[in-house]
Amino acid sequence: MGAGPSEAPISCAYRPPLPAPPRLQKISCPSDATGRKAPQGGCAMEPAMHPNADNLIASRFDTVIYDLDGTLIDSARDMCVAVSRVLADHGLPPITDQDARIFMGQGSKVTMGKAFAKNGRTLDDEALSAATREFVRYYEADPISNTIAFDGVAEVVARLARLGLKQGVCTNKFERPARIILEHLKLMPPISDVAGADTFPVRKPDPKHILMLVERMGGNPQRTVMIGDSIHDAEAAHRAGIPAVLVSWGYTLKPASELGADAVIDRFGALPDTLGQLAAR
Q1: How far apart are CA 253 and CA 30, in angstroms?
Q2: 67 given a catalytic annotation
Q3: Cβ distance 274 to 160 under 8 Å?
Q4: 59, CA 20 to 30 Å: which among 3, 44, 162, 167?
Q5: What is the pTM (predicted TM-score) of this model?
Q6: What confidence tens digit (pLDDT) does each residue in 45-81 have?
Q7: Residue 132: closest CA among 192, 173, 178, 74
Q8: What backbone phi and psi angles, to 5 degrees, belong to 27?
Q9: Could you say which of 142, 168, 198 is where a domain stops?
């Protein structure tokens, strides 16, 4: 492990340049083909809804649990920067935004292991744990500079809050940066609670990660729905006896339609109508 952040700035093809967090070197990540374009699933306008959708939702559900990265927010660029800072400390080249999207979802340690593996490095558990701590330090210093909510998220979260639904986030990201991001994006409130990778002794795909959060929020698991983007979200939800809705634009290589979800949405604005349809089944 290096003694600290690399002294020399690292330059790579990436625009616009990122401001460096205080006392940290400036670093960029290579751009990728996806760019910063919001997913076609994002739409700030709410779709035409089933006339009884609100009543159906309120009668069937009392709690909505969301995944975070790739579901509510695009955090790939800030993750890319933090991971690349650690790689730079080890004399390795940066990853891309798209790498970050692919590597995320199973916790920071797995993300770092994949980043080193891409560069032909395999770390033992002790070294990987140390690298992960460095990543967390870099990431928590600035988790928000380039992170955005997907289109339609704020409107849908507000709509479900008006229906009186409890809303929480269950993520394999550490709880502290997750809360910082949600508060910065003005999604918390209405979202009232967060369970991160370090909140409980378990994390997704263990169903207890969701169930313990629902219990802490005062919700009813039998009236809960999970919104996510990955097989881990669908698996955790179904093992908890909870329906799963997946978004089609998330951080997963396999199409959401092949992950066994109860429904898949192509726009976040379509979520209320989809919940109404699930409630009507």
Answers
A1: 20
A2: yes
A3: no
A4: 44
A5: 0.82
A6: 444 455 588 899 999 999 999 999 999 999 999 999 9
A7: 173
A8: -145, 145
A9: 142
